[in-house]
Design brief:
Order of helices and strands: HHEEHEEEEEEEEE
Largest sheet: 7 strands, antiparallel
Number of helices: 3
Strand content: 25-35%
Number of domains: 2
Distance between the termini: 118 Å
Radius of gyration: 35 Å
Bound molecules: FE2/S2 (inorganic) cluster
Length: 181
């Protein structure tokens, strides 16, 4: 005759004991975690597809205001946004492109010394961008300038004017300078 203890053990053996139940729950949890992780990763990859990494380049043609907004000397207001300096001299206005002609670093305008100084290899340019010290091979390039229908200055850094030694200087070309403004 089977006693009660044996019957209990037999039942546990047939349906799985408390240990087996715990293992089963753990396995299910693990399986669900894996499924959830897999689905999350796929969801992220799908979202990534719809929002690709893009590079937003600054505009190459932009307006900077009216000629009357610029006083005599160097105006550094647009250096951060457009990498330019606006210069007014006795003849008019032109725009320097803030890229060292040696290897392309961005020089600093040193107000106290009235010059642009490149932090990379020490090139120096006067207040009109003419190189006078260091390894820079030519003056700072000048960006295209024009006036729009409203009389605002339009700068085009996609069109640069250069003045390499021994070659034709483009600084007096139409579009490189706003005379008499
Ligand atoms: S990059 Fe300006 S001096 Fe070399």
């Amino acid at each position: 005759m089977p006693n009660e203890e044996n019957v209990g053990k037999a039942k546990e053996g047939a349906s799985g004991g408390p240990d087996d139940t715990t293992k089963l729950v753990r396995r299910r949890k693990f399986a669900w975690t894996m499924v959830f992780s897999f689905l999350s990763a796929n969801l992220l990859m799908t979202l990534r597809f719809f929002f690709p990494r893009t590079l937003f380049e600054p505009k190459t043609v932009f307006r900077i205001g009216y000629p009357g907004d610029f006083a005599y000397g160097v105006d550094t207001r647009f250096q951060q946004d457009y990498r330019i300096w606006v210069v007014r001299n006795t003849e008019g206005i032109f725009v320097l492109y803030a890229r060292c002609t040696h290897l392309g670093c961005t020089p600093d305008w040193v107000e106290g010394e009235n010059k642009f100084k490149c932090p990379c290899h020490g090139s120096g340019y006067d207040s009109e961008g003419i190189n006078f010290e260091g390894p820079a091979p030519r003056p700072l390039d000048r960006a295209g300038v024009d006036l729009d229908a409203e009389g605002q200055i339009v700068v085009n850094v996609g069109k640069l004017y250069q003045c390499p030694p021994g070659l034709q200087c483009q600084f007096k070309d139409p579009g490189a300078f706003l005379a008499g403004v």
